[in-house]
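Anyone have tokens for Vacuolar cation/proton exchanger? Sequence:
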Amino acid sequence: MESADETGIHVVDDIDDPEIREVDAQQRRIQAFSVGLEGAGDRKTIGTVIYKSIYTVILSKKFNLLIPFGPLAIFVQKKANQNGWVFILGLLGIMPLAERLGYTTEQLAFYSGPTIGGLLNATFGNATELIISIYALRTGRIRVVQLSLLGSLLSNLLFVLGIAFFSGGIVRKEQVFNKATAVVDSGLLLMAVMGLLFPASLHSTGTEVHLGVSELALSRVNSCVLLLAYVASIIFQLKNIKHLEGNQHGEILYSDDQDQDQDEEGEAAPEISKWESVIWLGITAAAISILSEYLVDAIEGTSLAWGVPVAFISVILLPIGGNTAAVTTSVMFAMKDKLDVSLGVAIGSSTQISMFIIPFCVVVGWIFGRPVDLNFQLFETATLFMTVLFVAFMMQEGTSNYFKGLMLLFCYVLVAASYFVHEDPSSWLVITYYILELIP
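Reply: yep, here.
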């Protein structure tokens, strides 16, 4: 039952679900904010729209209190040149920006229909990782590109999926997810591992026909094949949109009846307009692009200041910025017993990174004359292979519980410990160059 308060805003009175009441309360706060602004004049001004949009996108979320750390990181870099502090502050500042980028993409998808909306989520699902990789590639930090993308893969497959299984298992003894979709996603991940494994094996065994050339050529061929396979998977998904409960890009695809139920619960209504979504998408992407420059530039200096390997910073610490939103989303839906959404966030993001972003970086490097290859070195490829194999084994039954989540989290600790004592062979060249740059 609905009633109207003194501002004329409709209030839902008979909902027992505290989560739905919280959503309704947030919408009423936004409406009240708008009504208060509109009360100052007879007509809705441009300023009113701007203030309401800022409140909805920025001020309504406590997590966005971390945004000022981004400008603070830039200030510290300009004034003190303390790379360790720049990295920490930049990492804190980029986390809410990455979450807001995903939010604005979801809002824009409401106005685009299921097909275009799915493509938007597929394109911008890992935009933070892509922006960081493109900047690192543009500045010649090819190894940072490889390690950061590898870290995002490991974080999504072990940490994000593990914490989703664990949190969902705490609420319910056992949860069920779409086994068929999980099998397809596992197959795509294993295909991507094959694309990385063969160049690394070719280099490690020294069996190249043309030294230094065959490995790069194989990487470019594999990248083109992986990109074609990824496009085929998108087409297959969109063709079968009515027959799937979820997709691999973090968005559940509902039937018409399910869409109606979502609207009744107040969970599927857009909060900002289409043009507001486009503008905020551009603003957040630009902010991430600027902040990623300072974040990437601080990696080598942070390694020297902390005495921590570059590989550990790139593989374990750097992906935290892009995966914060994935963690909160996967936990939230897992506790609501919507595990297919959680799998879409974790596994779908990993599929996109391995099948699209990594091959895309190789092709971009090819176009701009950068020798980017798929040889992630033997140690890194082995950790990824074992991770994908273990995750595929965990998902083969189509069920999850808290113990499976614990095993995934423990595996992530093992991986993190391994990279803490692993010195990347190429990092010595990077650090030497960095030291020489500091010498007048």
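The longest helix spans residues 142-171.
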